[in-house]
Amino acid sequence: GRPLGVGTAHRGLLALAAALGDGSLLEPARTYITTHYGWRAAQSKAMVTMLAHVGVPETLQYLIQVAMRFRTRGIQKHARVELDGVASRRGWTTEELADRTLDDGGLGPSGRLTLTYTAEGAPSRTFTLALGSSVALVLQDGDGKVLRGLPRARVGEDEDSVKAAKKALSAARRSTKAFFKAQLDRLQVAMVSQRTWSAELFTEVLLPHPLLGPICQRLVWVDAD
Known about the structure:
Mean pLDDT: 88
Strand order of the largest sheet: 1-2-3-4
Shape: globular
Number of strands: 4
Low-confidence stretches: 3-9
Distance between the termini: 55 Å
Number of helices: 9
C-alpha cells in the first residue's frame, strides 16, 4: 500500500506484526525497503526492526545481508544494531548468530526436496531436488534420471499438484541461489578478517548444514592453535 509515517500507532502495529508474524513478512518488508529506502528511511528502519524481532532464520539472514552490503549507510548501520541486539538476547556473538540461524534454502533439513505429481487411480510421480557432487542443484525423477525441469503432466495427473510442484521448484531454486550468494560473500569476509570458529560450532552447526556443509568440505581449514 501507500507509504505510511512511523507514528505511535504504526510502531504498535509493527510490534504486533513482529510478535505474531513469521517468515511470510519478509517479502513485503523487503519490497518496501528496496523501493522506499531513499525517501522513507525512517519507515525502512522500522521494517528492519520488525524483521529483527520476528527473529526467524529467513528474516535474520536477510538483515545480515543488509548489514553487510546496502545502498545507504544509515539502514546498513541500523541492521547491524538490531542484529547485535538479537545476538545479545540469545547469548551469542553477532557472527555466531549468523551461523546458528542459517535457513535451508527451501530444501528442508535433509537437503532434499521431494516434488509429487498425484494421479487418481494411478501411481504418483515423484521428483527430487538436491545438491549434486559439484554443489549445484540437481533435479531427478523417480528412476534417478537427471532433468532440466519438471515434465508436463500426463493424462489423469492432477493439475493442481503439478502447479504446486513447479511453484515449489522455482521457489527452492531462487532461495538456494540467494543462500549461496550470501554465504559465499560471508565466507570471503571471514577469510579476509581471519575469523575463527570454535570446534563445537564448526562440527555441530556448519558441517551438518544441508547447504553450507558441502561448501565447508571444499575449503581448507586451519587449526588456529
